[in-house]
Amino acid sequence: MKNADTKFNIEVLKLLPSIDTLLQTPSALAIREESGAKKLTNLARTATDLLRAEVQLDGSDCDRENLLDRAETHLRRAWEYQKSKRIHRLINATGVIIHTNLGRAPLSENTKKTLIDEASGYCNLEYDLGTGKRAKRGLRAENLLAELTGAESALIVNNCAAAAVLVLTALSKGGEAIVSRGELVEIGGDFRVPDVMEQSGADLVEVGTTNRTKLADYENAITENSRLIVKVHPSNYRIIGFTETPEISDLSELARKKNVLLYEDAGSGALIDLSEFGLSDEPLITRSIASGADVVTFSGDKLLGGPQAGLIVGGSEVIEKIRKHPLYRALRASKLIYAALEATLDSFSRENAFKEIPVLRMLSMSEARLRERTETFTKELKNKLGEGSNFDFEIIEGTSVVGGGSAPAVKPKTALLSISKNGWSAAQLEKELRLSNPGVITRILDDRVVIDLRTVSDDDEAYLLEVFTKLHIAV
Ligand SMILES: *Cc1c(COP(=O)(O)O)cnc(C)c1O
Q1: Residue 301 CA, closest ligand 1 atom number
Q2: Contact partners, residue 168, CB within 8 Å, separation at least 6
Q3: Using a 6 Å cutoff on CB, does residue 232 contact ligand 1?
């Protein structure tokens, strides 16, 4: 019997379509337009391999025609799968505003427009139209940044981790950098303060304790080899209770007296006061500069709401020293970053940031407004799905998350739309939404899928309605 089966399968294997036959099918010809011939051949090989494996497991009901059909289906699926790996838009319905896995800050409308219309082709990145000569790269973005933070000068690199490595290398390599034990943190994505310090060639001098570090601790640690006092914002981590850490102004006075520099890595950093939204813990860059920090670094795509970038602001002499370091050339940002940053900073300059920058708009959206939006959305959804839909909706109280390693203790109140589908587990519904097109990323709370409209734009809301309608029809 076993022998007969094997023989049968060998006969069936002979019916498998050849790669060449598969390449001539309508599906293959359509895919080829998008994939190119070489990739198509690879996909056809994958599809045929899969089919062969299937047939070896179960060779019943096979003829030449249905095997070719099945090969075409495998081919289409393989292509869809490859396409799904491309960077593509998603709907963030998690309520996590600065979601690192989903690309952190969504860009403002004028930033998107600037990127496409002004920066995607040739542009005046390093060119002065007045003189017709080479000019400094990204000068206007730097000037805007200095203006908005009250610093004398500014410099832009690829991300805040790069900014920290550059500042530490340029200012403390071969010397000592003093840090509080309460600030030797890991920010996430493998950014660990002690490792970064080691990488930059500075000798790390730890002072104080995990929860309390006093001004005298810093003072006692300063030697003739000391170059920097480093203050790191703990970002995603808080020590509460019996704690102490000196003010920037006191550290700055000490630094001046001892002839060392004061560097603050502010992480998220805020360009405008966000204490109204509970973010009083996030360093205000203007305040750090006004309090005497010699150099401050922060991210472009956290609370600033712009592109990924590392922003360095401080005194002109210090910034020029950093700019002249060879590492700067290796970490310099592209024209896309300068253009996006400039457009983002323009919103702050116009004092329109809360209106125009999505991160700030989402952060400042009131619970009442969110409830109103959620009620309207639920009504529209019910209308669209009609009577007899097997979805069940309920609006509940909940909280959003700032994210991006910012303000871990701040939980803005929101209205959540809790969704369930008859006969489905929450995990099943979550997966189905995630795999729909565009993918919708949700949260599971108490065994229910929840949607937080705080992170869903008006445009996304329309998409979201469509996704549910399709899901409703499909299953
Ligand atoms: C987030 C953060 C960084 C890293 O910033 P990236 O822009 O992600 O490189 C560095 N330091 C602090 C304190 C941070 O919060």
Answers
A1: 7
A2: 177, 196, 197, 200, 202, 228, 230, 263
A3: yes
Distance CA 292, CA 314 (A): 9
Joined tokens for residue 301: 């795509």
Select from 167, 191, 193, 297 the residue to mutate for testing ligand 1; criterion: most ligand atoms less than 8 Å from CB: 191
| Cα–Cα nearest to 105, from 345, 304, 314 | 304
Distance 407 CA to ligand 1 centre (A): 13
44 lines ligand 1 (CB under 6 A): no
CB under 8 Å to 116, separation ≥6 — which residues?
Answer: none
Pocket test for ligand 1, best of 265, 359, 406 (most atoms within 8 A of CB): 265
- pLDDT tens, position by position, for the chain (475 residues)? 444 555 567 788 889 999 999 999 999 999 999 999 999 999 999 999 999 999 988 888 889 999 999 999 999 999 999 988 999 999 999 999 999 999 999 999 999 999 999 999 999 999 999 999 999 999 999 999 999 999 999 999 999 999 999 999 999 999 999 999 999 999 877 889 999 999 999 999 999 999 999 999 999 999 999 999 999 998 888 888 899 999 999 999 999 999 999 999 999 989 999 999 999 889 999 999 999 999 999 999 999 999 999 999 999 999 999 999 999 999 999 999 999 999 999 999 999 999 999 999 999 999 999 999 999 999 999 999 988 888 999 999 999 999 988 888 899 999 999 999 999 999 999 999 999 888 999 999 999 999 999 999 999 999 999 998 888 766 5
Residue with the smallest CA separation from ligand 1 atom 12 is: 267
Any ligand 1 atom below 6 A from CB of 267: yes
User: Is the minimum distance from the CB of 166 to ligand 1 under 6 angstroms?
Assistant: no
Tell whether ligand 1 has an atom less than 6 A from the beta carbon of residue 306.
no
412 vs 370: CA distance, rounded Å: 11
156 lines ligand 1 (CB under 6 A): no
